[in-house]
Amino acid sequence: MRKPAATAPSAAAEPRRRDTSASRTAKFAAETRLGLVRRARRMNRTLTLAFPDAHCELDFTNPLELAVATILSAQCTDVQVNMTTPALFARYRDARGYAEADRTELEEYIRPTGFYRNKASSLIGLGQALLERHDGVLPGNLDELVKLPGIGRKTANVILGNAFDVPGITVDTHFGRLVRRWGWTTEEDPVKVEHIVGELIERKEWTMLSHRVIFHGRRVCHARKPACGACLLAKDCPSFGTGPTDPVAAAALVKGPEAEHLLELVGR
Ligand code: SF4
After folding, report:
1. I need a surface site. Which of 181, 204, 217, 239 has the fewest CB within 10 A?
2. Is 231 a pocket residue for ligand 1 (Cβ < 6 Å)?
């Protein structure tokens, strides 16, 4: 993995000693709108240091492949999808391939990703809709994408951001959990979260922000036991202490190929 050129902000993870739990709570409770915008953008910059290579973790070579991989990723890990798609993409090369697919054969290709019957219906429907309405080509705008079978707003934003370079915020389970922990919003509804975060963070940053937040959620800020004591965002996070704050215990919770780099950044 590429190492960042930036200097590691050593001990950045640990809130200052005088920054007690009560004073932290009061500090975040008194935060102004401008303070929130500044903190959110600062956290995005910190995440850039943490994950300079953040990217879409699904493998694809064109917009249709990304759409198919994203549909398959529902209730399935990206790793499993990436193990499934090489053979699938070799067998079904374009919208017509999916539109005219033999359902039983297609289901066998995608069975390892789970919910394969529903997913096969989505892929066949997607191929047919693309042929009927878009000459077999995936459209590059949100309004048209969300009208296609199997493509909701989250999937559409993944496709726009990663296949068309149109900035998009992807509110998946990690993204929603983290921005609520950070006090960026209290909303649970993904569309509301998307709009609220879109008003905090510069538009050009939306796609990369999504990747960085999802990377952080998968590697550090886990749902059940976040690695607070080894987290580069600790001083800006109102939820510091949700997980272990002991540096050694927290370090053991950091996952992924970037673990060593992340622990270096927090001076462990
Ligand atoms: S909850 Fe803990 S791990 Fe998650 S961002 Fe806050 S300090 Fe970091």
Report:
1. 204
2. yes
